[in-house]
Design brief:
Layout: H1 17-25, H2 33-43, E1 48-51, H3 58-69, E2 79-82, H4 86-99, E3 108-111, H5 118-126, E4 130-133, H6 135-143, E5 154-157, H7 160-165, H8 169-176, E6 184-189, H9 194-203, E7 208-211, E8 221-227, H10 234-245, E9 250-253, H11 257-269, E10 274-277, H12 283-294, E11 300-303, H13 305-308, E12 318-321, H14 328-335, E13 345-351, H15 356-366, E14 371-373, E15 390-395, H16 405-413, E16 423-428, E17 433-438, H17 442-451, E18 461-463
Parallel strand pairs: 1-6, 1-7, 2-4, 2-5, 3-4, 5-6, 8-13, 8-14, 9-11, 9-12, 10-11, 12-13
Antiparallel strand pairs: 15-17, 15-18, 16-17
Helix pairs in contact: 2-3, 3-4, 6-8
Protein name: Putative ATP-dependent RNA helicase DbpA
Domain Helicase C-terminal: 220-381
GO molecular function: ATP binding; hydrolase activity; nucleic acid binding; RNA helicase activity
Length: 466
């Protein structure tokens, strides 16, 4: 949807004059693209799904919407904003307070994990118009009947994709169960994977979808073929491509289980965090391997086609065909796994002179010519191997021990803990949990979880490879 330049002026909207005046005093002269596209639907009380990255002006977008409809004289919780981390919740609350300066007596309260529970109970007893919080802590207050959402008119999920990555799916469903069905719901997300679509279908009513394109992104896949001398030089070629592109996540396809183990072992021997995935793995080992790869604490996954079926990796930087696929259709499925989530993907295929006929068949099948490339110089092999950005910690407790993602986040971000922004994906099974944290905070996180308590008890904690 293209917005005329004249309509980028806030005064063109049906906004409370006090909000417009305050925007002018803050130097907000015109709307950003996400504001121009989303605010008319938000002000018309429609449910909205907005795909926009941080820095696009999304916080001001939903803040203006919720403030415009707020009834200040009705001292009840009318709006709930859920955020994945305490840091983001604090930023959002500050932005709402700043935009609300022209309207007197608006009470905004933050409810986040990692801080004392008692004072929050006291604050809730005094009441609020707007609650900004993290799912785990908000759910806790709802279960203990400290928070009442009977008068809620607006629900906002900020960075919804990140909340789902951190394992808050169940908490979100539970929280929604405490609020009226008749409400306005807004969902903001940088990416829009299938799991976001599923939750939107459950909790939203005929939502309007708004998407602001990132001018720096491309959904195309750059595919290049590299001819190698013989089978012995394949692993060397893989190492050169990894060193040249330094992707955070790479999926390497082999045609046999034996090859996947061999390639993963050889890459580990020279320093890469690589894992093999094939049909002989036990389910526990498969789950652990996939968790580490999805968490970005294993950077290279070497897999057979069968084992890779059903992989749900939102952003895969690179695919390498260690061997050409034995079926033409399979090749297309392989390379289609990269270039997702609006990013440009890289696909590299290795072949020998004997396999040239496969390339000819593939080009005829796809009705296109491939790029041919030269492998990077061997000098690159002398460069140090790069490390994945995250580490994964295994906790020996899960749903059966009443452990929830919010408990893990709270334990990590408590006194002398790590910032919530340094926490990655969280997965909780029946008797286990995985949490990813940035590499630089790995030791602190491990110490917090191994020496501290979750749900009032100690759990066995170990750091997985990565």
């Amino acid at each position: 949807m293209r917005i005329p330049l004249s309509e980028y002026d806030f005064s063109s909207l049906d906004l409370n004059p006090a909000l417009v005046d305050n925007l002018a005093s803050l130097g907000y002269s015109e709307m950003t693209p996400i504001q121009a596209q989303a605010l008319p639907s938000i002000l018309a009380s429609k449910d909205v799904i907005a795909k926009a990255k941080t820095g696009s002006g999304k916080t001001a977008t939903f803040s203006l919407g919720l403030l415009n409809k707020l009834d200040v004289k009705r001292f009840r919780v009318q709006t709930l904003v859920l955020c994945p981390t305490r840091e983001l919740a604090d930023q959002v609350a500050a932005e709402i307070r700043k935009l609300a300066r022209g309207i007197h007596n608006i009470k905004v309260l933050t409810l986040c994990g990692g801080v004392a529970f008692g004072p929050q109970v006291g604050s809730l007893e005094h009441g609020a118009h707007i609650i900004v919080g993290t799912p785990g802590r908000v759910e806790d207050h709802l279960r203990k009947a400290n928070l009442n959402l009977d008068n809620l008119t607006t629900l906002i999920l900020d960075e919804a994709d990140r909340m789902l990555d951190m394992g808050f799916q169940q908490a979100l469903d539970d929280i929604v169960g405490y609020m009226p069905r008749q409400r306005q719901t807004m969902l903001f997300s940088a990416t829009y994977p299938e799991k976001i679509d599923k939750i939107a279908q459950r909790i939203m009513r005929s939502p309007v979808t708004v998407e602001v394109q990132d001018s720096h992104s491309s959904q195309s896949i750059v595919e290049t073929l590299y001819q190698i001398d013989n089978d012995q030089s394949r692993i060397e070629a893989v190492r050169l491509l990894l060193q040249a592109h330094q992707p955070e996540t790479t999926l390497i396809f082999c045609n046999t289980k034996i090859e996947t183990d061999r390639v993963a072992n050889e890459l580990r021997a020279v320093g890469y965090e690589a894992s093999a995935l094939h049909g002989d793995l036990e389910q526990k080992d498969r789950d652990q391997t996939l968790a580490c790869f999805a968490n970005r604490s294993v950077s290279v996954l070497v897999a057979t086609d069968v084992a890779a079926r059903g992989l749900d990796i939102d952003a895969l930087d690179m695919v390498i065909n260690y061997q050409m696929a034995q079926e033409l259709e399979v090749h297309t499925h392989r390379i289609g796994r990269t270039g997702r989530a609006g990013a440009q993907g890289i696909a590299c295929s290795l072949y020998t002179q004997k396999e040239t006929y496969k390339i000819d068949l593939l080009e005829d099948y796809l009705e296109q010519k491939f790029n041919r490339g030269d492998l990077p110089h061997l000098e690159l092999l002398r460069e140090p191997v790069f490390y994945p950005p995250m580490v994964t910690i295994h906790i020996g407790g899960g749903k059966k021990q009443k452990l929830r993602p919010g408990d893990i986040v709270g334990a990590l971000t408590g006194a002398d803990g790590i910032p919530g922004t340094e926490i990655g994906k969280i997965q909780v099974g029946d008797h286990w949990a995985y949490v990813a944290v940035t590499r630089k905070h790995g030791k602190t996180a491990f110490k917090k979880l191994s020496e501290g308590k979750l749900k009032g008890r100690s759990f066995r904690v170990r750091r997985l490879r990565g």
